[in-house]
UniProtKB/TrEMBL annotation:
Upper lineage: Bacteria, Bacillati, Actinomycetota, Actinomycetes, Bifidobacteriales
Protein known as: Thioredoxin
UniProt KW keywords: Disulfide bond
UniProt xrefs under InterPro entries: Thioredoxin, Thioredoxin-like_sf, Thioredoxin_domain
Pfam families: Thioredoxin
GO molecular function terms attached to this record: protein-disulfide reductase activity
Keyword Disulfide bond annotated: yes
Domain Thioredoxin: 1-117
Length: 131
């Protein structure tokens, strides 16, 4: 699937309309972002069942702030409306593919139930996206 450039206006639909969505928060002036971009694009083409979106933090500062993006690039993975991964830094292709495999394998409901049973704050483990 081709990577779609998102704005604050269409981010929520991307989250709610896809079982798994990967988001690359980037800046045009960022060297590591430029290095990561072709990797993100290639992996997107290899995974047509997953939504891939890019968010320019300079054009969408409100969204970057709401997502607590402190550095770029930041990769966010959302599954069934829950943020299951968010980390700054460019990834190698193999590492990105590994994360995608983990995201596909994760049973969100089971993870939430296990967190609740253990007395953990579910919002600390898996954030529900309210934007």
């Amino acid at each position: 699937m081709a990577v779609k450039e998102l704005t604050s206006a269409d981010f929520e639909q991307a989250v709610k309309g896809n079982e798994i969505a990967l988001f690359d928060f980037f800046a045009t002036w960022c060297g590591p972002c430029k290095a990561f971009s072709p990797i993100f694009d290639k992996v997107a083409d290899e995974n047509p069942d997953i939504f891939f979106g890019k968010i320019d933090i300079d054009k969408n500062q409100d969204l970057a702030n709401a997502a607590n993006v402190q550095a770029v690039p930041t990769l966010m993975i959302v599954k069934k409306g829950h943020v299951i991964y968010q980390e700054a830094g460019a990834l190698r292709e193999a590492d990105l593919n590994d994360l995608i495999g983990q995201a596909k394998a994760l049973d969100v409901e089971a993870a939430l139930a296990a967190a609740k049973a253990a007395g953990a704050d579910q919002d600390e483990l898996i954030e529900e996206h309210d934007a």
